Sequence to fold (937 residues):
Amino acid sequence: MSTEIKELKFTTFKTNIKYSVINKRVHNIDGLAKVTGRATYTFDVKLPNMLYGKILRSPHPHARIVNIDASKALAMPGVIAVATGKDTPGVKQGIWRRYPELCDEQILPLEKVRYIGEPVAAVAAVTEEIAEKALELIDVEYEVLPPVFQPLDAIRKDAPIIHEGVERNINVTRHIEWGDVDDAFAEAEKDGYIREDWFRTSSQHHMCMETRAAVSSFTPDGKLTVYCSTQSPYYMQALLAGVLDMREGDIRVIAHYVGGGFGGKFELDAAIFCSAVLSKKTFRPVKIVFTREEDFIASKRRTPMHYYIRTAMKKDGTFLAREVRVFTNGGAYTGMGATALYLTGFFCSFPYKWRGYRYDGYRVYTNTLPSTAMRGFGAPQAMFCSEQQIEWMCADLGLDPYEVRRKNAHTECYEVPGQAYIQSCGMTQCIDKIEAWAKSKGNLGPNRAIGVSAAGFMSGGIFNWFDTPYSFSSAVVVINYDGKVDLYVGCQEIGQGSNTTMAIICAETLGVKIEDINVYSGDTAHSPADLGAWGSRQTLMAGNAVKMAAEDAKRQLLEFAYAEMGLNIVYDLDIKDRWVHVIARPERGMKYEDLVKRAIRGKDGQRIIGRGYYTPHRKGMISPAYSYMMQAVDAEIDPETGKITLHEVMTAHDCGQPINPLGLIGQLEGAASMALGFGYLEDQPMDEGKILNPNLVDYKVIRATEMPKTDMIEIDTYEAEGPYGAKEAGEGLTNPTAAALGNAIFHALGLQMKELPITSEKIVNALKEKKEKQGK
Amino acid sequence: MEKRLITLNVNGIDYELYINPKTLLVEAIRDHIGLTGTKRGCDTVSCGACTVMIDDMSVKSCSILAVQAEGKKITTVEGLEKNGELSPIQKAFLDNGSYQCGFCTPGMLMSASAFLKENEGKDVTEEEIREGIEGNICRCTGYNSIVRAIESVVKGNYKEG
Ligand code: FES
Ligand code: FES
Fold:
């Protein structure tokens, strides 16, 4: 039974507050550096006396390392050091630090390699060319072991064991259940409708334009500085400390500009680890940059999944229950893939109310490139299966799919039993808007249709499998004598605009202009610990920390203003646009700059320092808040060639209060391009564990000419848990697209496409099959 | 192979380089001259991150040797701005939020600049703009904001200087 939460009485109203900075079109604060070539990425870092590193990789999907002989390589002029597993403390690491058995990856393994491309040794030399040549001189003796590549093969009793002691190669299992599933199915058996389907989702690569890159510099005083392309400097600091047996505080991680992340850059990678190990050996800076091919074959990928869904509804379209079983191809190691297994299971219930829901997920080790988080974190896979099945069930029963979705959609103040507390929710409004938009388009002609999909996503995870002792987000605000503000944050700018978002929130709270804020991020030397950019967490979590820090600083300022102005204590003061004033009588006040000067004098010359932090508490199992959306894809398919032409993508979107509108549009468009690629282009086909398309000729991504028109309708809601009512925007937008495309193909051609990506070839084959069936 | 002394004119300045004749132009620009605005994103001439202008034409600088660019006028992203004043396309990128991580941006700006030069005073369609940047991959923006930026320069919303 769905439970409306009685005690939570927040409503998703739109506040009438007039903001000065929030939701205004501004230039990103790091835009100037980016459009002038001044932005310096790890790829561009060059330190004095620097060496270049290269990594030797396993040609075998599964083999025991018998011996590594690097003597010939070491003898080569220009080669300074070679590192193998023996040069490391041999620590198995992973990002689920609370579960030692899930910390299973030794970068530079001592005993076994488990996928093609796994690092086995690394060379540091005076040039990249010498390092590359030296790799050929390293002799590795392998004892080849039988491999297994598919999860459904790997769980068989007789399958090779990839990690000792892990039976049937089952890495992680996840069970989620609420309500009375069997009872609800029984009801549907009698007088309802049940449908079951199997789906397969493919692999997708993050394909960040900046490949994995790191420059590490270890000095004789035992300190290590690492420039790297990462989504979480704090994670890198903590993980490196673990694998190098060092103090966290002796490691400084710097990531000023990061050329894309999308979920692929918050685990420790071999560029970072090997450069650090080589630098420790040589006491010189070592730079490692993956080639595009290395990035494709040896940096983790989106988790491919086998999906089984059985859904029960009443004949009128009321959802009863759903049962989901998922096997994911985990590849060789756990990484963040365990989280994807959990989230896909939860989001397959989204955004609907079920009387009963049951999910069983199995993450299976195979001898393939490990899979991990990627934008959407398991949810795009879930939506692809769920939203198509719902569409087909509506067609089977002759029901209106908009109506059915509306009837079952989450609403505000709803509890997903035992899982999640939903406060703001604009799902039904999203459905209304997209329905109206789609209907306004009329008949689109043959072989062309609009497909839709609903979706939602989290605003940061509340789980702490990483086992951090620190707040999830923290911020420090420093106000200087001239009134200008230094904002120190640990949240990470990777192109999504978090520095700008934090500056906006800080400026709005303090009542100053965005130009008054200098943001310092991407450096553990001055940025307070923060989990970083993943799981759509920064706007809400880091945003709350920044707001709290700014409020703290502001309160200290206003104490002086109260004293200065001698007001009756019933009056409230505020600052807006650098004007400190009585709220009831805005003309009464003083200049912000003057107040700051007096306050600093009054504090015996101390700068004003505000501190803020955020860790979610009592918000269920998943996230403090959820975004909602519905997306429509208008696609035309040539039935002869199967070629898909994308005409338009329209999205109705509830992300609470938008903070940075220009950034929001960018997120929408970027997510659409990536998710359309997931839908019909991108894949990493393998032969015996070897990726067949590790380059940008064969791995296709959407180009400017293929990108359709995009537009967005914002649904106004206010999220009580978010800073100024804001919640997730950007990652979740990746979730509905592949499903919406699938539904467009269903309506255009009557095909039910259950396998990603939906390539032209698959469409042509499916049409052929359909014709043959009709012929019979 | 014997090293050679060559002169490259980049952003109006002559640089003398003593290099292996097999050095790619992108390597000469980044590693020898030290202008790191120009990026690299692939090894297969597929991504456009390395795009520069040579005599007003866009060229992927990983696709030619440095010696082949001798005697020509090379412009990189650093050469778009004059005395701290941004070029129209740079301003349009800022106003339209046509970048996110920014890694493709230098190459994208150079393709856009070459496209604008080539089509100066002409009417262009959105399709032509898209074709003009087809060789450049952007993984972040979905291109549409970039197309809008180029369109706004075509429309004359930004004046040079
Ligand atoms: S680096 Fe990719 S095209 Fe030149
Ligand atoms: S802005 Fe990141 S690749 Fe284009």
